[in-house]
Structures are given as C-alpha cells and as structure tokens.
Design a protein that fits this description.
Helix content: 10-25%
Number of strands: 14
Largest sheet: 9 strands, mixed
Distance between the termini: 63 Å
Strand content: 25-35%
C-alpha cells in the first residue's frame, strides 16, 4: 500500500491554483476541513468554484476564502449564518447555485461513482426544474445569470428532473481517524457530506485528527476506503465550534 501522508496542510494544498473546482465536506461547522481551508487562504489561489452544503460562517471555514474574495462560484444548499455570503450574492459579486440538499448529496455521490446524471422528483414544478433561479445578480439588483431549464421525464405516473453529477478537481474533507493509506473514519454526525465530497474529487485531501498505520483500523469500521483518498495530513484535535449558540437565561418564571 502507498503512503499518502503529507507533512503539513500547506504541502497538501500547494497545487490548488486559480480557477480550481473544490468539493468541501462538512455541514455548518460540523466536520469541516478547517486546516486545509486556512492553508488555501495562505496561497494565491482565487477564482475558485466550490461545491459544499454551505459556505462556512463569517471569519471561519469557507467564510475565510469568501471574505478574501477568493471564491467565484458556490453550489450549495443554503446560505446559513454567513452574512458575507448573502451580501456578495445579492451585490452581484458571487455566483450561487442553490440546490436541494438531497440533490446535492446525490450529485456528489454520483460523480464519485461514475454516473453522469440521474432523475429525481426534488424540484419538479419549481424554478429548480423550470429554470429562472438567479445565479448571479447585477449591482442594480437585476438578474445577470439565471439557471437554465432542465430536462424532465415521466416514469410511471410521476415526473422527474434530470440532475448532472459533480466532479471536482480537488476535494477537502475532515476525519476523526485515518491511516497512511487513506482509509477514513468519521465521528458521528461529522460524517455528513465528507464521504460524498471525497468521492467527487479527482484529488481528495483528508485532514485527520488521529493518524494510524494500515491495519490499525478494523476494516468493518472504515467509513471511506482509501481508494477515494490521495493525500492525508495529520492536523490533530479539531477546535469544535458552535455555529449558532442558543442558551437559556437561567431565570425561571
């Protein structure tokens, strides 16, 4: 088996350049590859196209690249808690393709499995299928680029819309444990979009909290086999952040 380890996050992302397409794991701030994102922020890479469930938050995760003006286009399920994301989109500074969450997940999975497209009922009868979703605005608020209509077909007695799969130049993921051959184990809900993003990348880079040798992970416990992972970097324990903290006042009526 080939060792896929890199000495640092900076080394692992060094060849990600201008205009690269990147699939990024995580959901909100859970399981995001923060060290790899920060390493990209320290390079000159810009005009990036990102596929991710959301775009981090202001000042953390993908929000760092967004605030620095490094991202040209985002395909995501929601804006989330990122005010800069919303501002850039509405100001015409950022192209955004919003897509149903399950559709995004399947587009990533399909890309990793060599399936070019698939039919789904999600979005039928809406601008998702009919076209007209604003992808980019002009500075005056008018629509600069709108989504095109998609092919629909009837199977049985139900209509479905055709969605194309996603393949990215690179994928960035976070795992709790990985071995030097790229086999990964994710921690509970931090699995979220990470395996799917990893499958969609031509070159997948995994930051892992714990790095072990091949054979130390029970094969039955491997969540993502190393065949999908080309680079592994040991980043140590991740600082767990809360996207939106909600607490009670502690005062009882």
């Amino acid at each position: 088996m080939t060792r896929k380890t890199y000495a640092s996050a900076a080394d692992a992302v060094a060849d990600i350049g201008r205009g690269a397409t990147i699939a990024v794991g995580g959901f909100g701030l859970c399981g995001i590859p923060d060290a790899l994102i920060e390493a990209i922020a320290n390079t000159d890479a810009d005009e990036l196209e990102v596929f991710s469930n959301n775009c981090g938050v202001d000042g953390y995760g993908l929000g760092i690249l967004l605030a620095a003006g490094r991202i040209r286009r985002v395909t995501a399920s929601y804006v989330g808690e990122n005010k800069e994301f919303a501002r850039q989109y509405l100001a015409g500074e950022l192209e955004v393709e919003l897509t149903p969450q399950g559709t995004l997940a399947e587009r990533l999975r399909a890309g990793g499995n060599g399936v070019p497209a698939f039919f789904t009922p999600a979005g039928v009868g809406s601008p998702i299928a009919d076209g007209g979703m604003p992808w980019r605005y002009n500075a005056d608020g008018s629509v600069s680029i709108a989504s095109p209509p998609k092919e629909t077909r009837v199977f049985g007695d139900k209509r479905y819309v055709l969605e194309e799969s996603i393949n990215a130049d690179f994928a960035l993921v976070h795992a709790e444990t990985g071995d030097t051959a790229g086999n990964l184990v994710f921690d509970k809900t931090a699995m979220n979009f990470n395996p799917l993003a990893a499958m969609a990348g031509k070159i997948t880079i995994a930051q892992v909290e714990n790095l072990v040798e091949p054979g130390e992970i029970d094969p039955a416990h491997v969540h993502l086999p190393g065949v999908f992972v080309q680079r592994v970097v040991h980043t140590g324990p991740q600082d767990k952040r809360i996207e939106k903290r909600t607490v009670s006042s502690g005062v009882r009526a």
